[in-house]
Amino acid sequence: MQRFGHVIGPASGAPTSRQWRPVFDPDTAEAYAEVADGDAASVADAVDAARQAAPGWAGLRNSERARHLERLADALEARIEAFARAEAVDAGKPLALARDIEIPRAVSNLRFFAHAATQFASESHHGEAGLNYTLRSPLGVVGCISPWNLPLYLFTWKIAPALAAGNAVVAKPSEVTPASATLLGELALEVGLPPGVLNIVHGLGPAVGEALVAHPRVKAISFTGSTAVGRRIAGIASPMLKKLSLELGGKNATLVFADSDWRAQLDTLVRSAFQNSGQICLCGSRLLVERAVYDEFREAFVARVRALQVGAPLAPGTQVGPVVSQAHFDKILAALERARAEGGRVLCGGDALDRPGWYLAPTVIDGLDATCATNREEIFGPVATLQAFDDEAQALAWANAGDYGLSASVWTRDLARAHRLAAALDVGIVWINTWLMRDLRTPFGGTGASGLGREGGMEAMRFFTDPKNVCIALP
Ligand code: NAD
User: Fold this and answer.
1) N or C: which end of the chain has fewer CB within 10 A?
2) Ligand 1 neighbours (beta carbon < 6 A)
3) 55: CA distance to ligand 1 center in Å?
């Protein structure tokens, strides 16, 4: 059976504790591999390796660090098919999604931050009190904790800026999807990244994640995952006065106005709810539709959702694969039960498929108001709700009704309305007439229960460095 070991210092392979846990294939619900089951001792080893490597890495010229990241990006690009297959098996995502979008995006993340390393600059201030300049220094050893839904995409989104800014990294991928991060860690050693600069420790959140967060030598934690775990991490890291970036859950609204080109955009609207089986923090799982077109929209949308091809991740043509784990499958089924109990009307789907693996039929529900749990709590599966609104004010109130504030999409041809809503929506990202269109220079993150801080572009470079003011008296 395939094994995914830690990558610590120059070595990859066996866990220090010699314990392994099974890794499951969502298509069959059977174990197909094993992953190292780390503990606080593995984290301590990785932090030691990172501490040894950190000064040398920070001392390189920016352009040399950039070249290392470029080399890794090139090597990953040459292996897109292999990495995509690894994620299709590990995470259950359709091969085409991994091959055409997510692994190429991981390549872009590495390349983007290679460029950022050479473009990052700091301010100078003068004309008031002396000549001031800002030194931005790497923090030393930083921790990056990532989830299972976009395994390599989000892993690289964190480690690339951390490395570009001159830090040594200890990263903890999700124990549910350890494959692609391990392969990348091994590839990094193969292409000559100095050992200890990127360390990967596998294992459960409470054992490995918390040990990383609590380690006194780890200066910052960049975390993407659930709001509950984000709160727990904040509880440990905040009293230690560590830098924290928390990218958490979402319950995003999609506002469809009667004047929009929704008929022509139906594929994107369906994708915005069901891509990766709805397991993307940015998915629009609450569609608010103007009453004037509600019936027509509902019929067309449901027909398109019914036509989605649900199937094995490796089968050609699959648009929706299984969900990632037994625990997640059970959680979504419970959410469907709750939606029915709250009075929701299931327009399509609503149940598991009658086949092995963790397959759920893409589900659309209406008849629920903005205050019920179904419309407030993150389900993170192939489940979307529809609500009819009467006017812009009502749409805005419903969109802003929950605790989360990650993203929203607004579909309208009325430019003034688009700008008005963009300003009034209480979220970190607003898309107008599009969804998940990303320029990597833009700030990324959410408000409220969706997190703290921003990733992306120079925001990430600033997070992974400390500013120091140097003031020179001028005669
Ligand atoms: P999760 O919070 O269960 O786990 C995320 C990571 O944290 C995993 O590596 C896990 O092992 C680790 N972890 C778990 N408990 C920990 C603890 N006590 N201390 C330290 N680390 C711990 O999340 P998940 O189920 O893997 O991912 C799904 C969630 O992630 C959803 O809520 C989704 O919205 C969110 N997400 C957010 C974004 C974003 O950018 N805002 C992106 C993707 C996913």
Assistant:
1) C
2) 145-149, 154, 172, 174-175, 205-206, 209-210, 213, 224-226, 229, 232-233, 247-250, 281, 378, 380, 406, 446, 450-451
3) 30
**Which residue from 93, 105, 174, 222 has its CB within 8 A of the most atoms of ligand 1, so it is best to mutate?**
174
By most ligand atoms within 8 Å of CB, the mutation choice from 224, 251, 440, 452 for ligand 1 is 224
Active site residues: 247, 281
Residue given tokens 């309305």 in the structure block: 417
Residue 39 has φ and ψ, to the nearest 5°, of -150, -170
Q: List the chain pLDDT tens, one digit each, 475 residues.
A: 899 999 999 987 766 667 999 999 999 999 999 999 999 999 999 999 999 999 999 999 999 999 999 999 999 999 999 999 999 999 999 999 999 999 999 999 999 999 999 999 999 999 999 999 999 999 999 999 999 999 999 999 999 999 999 999 999 999 999 999 999 999 999 999 999 999 999 999 999 999 999 999 999 999 999 999 999 999 999 999 999 999 999 999 999 999 999 999 999 999 999 999 999 999 999 999 999 999 999 999 999 999 999 999 999 999 999 999 999 999 999 999 999 999 999 999 999 999 999 999 999 999 999 999 999 999 999 999 999 999 999 999 999 999 999 999 999 999 999 999 999 999 999 999 999 999 999 999 999 999 999 999 999 999 999 999 999 999 8
User: Which one-letter amino acid corresponds to residue 280?
Assistant: I
Q: Are 172 and 218 in contact (CB under 8 A)?
A: no
Measure 254 CA to ligand 1 centroid, in angstroms.
Answer: 24
Going from the C-alpha of 299 to that of each of 273, 296, 306, 387, the distances in angstroms are 16, 5, 11, 13
Reported pTM: 0.97
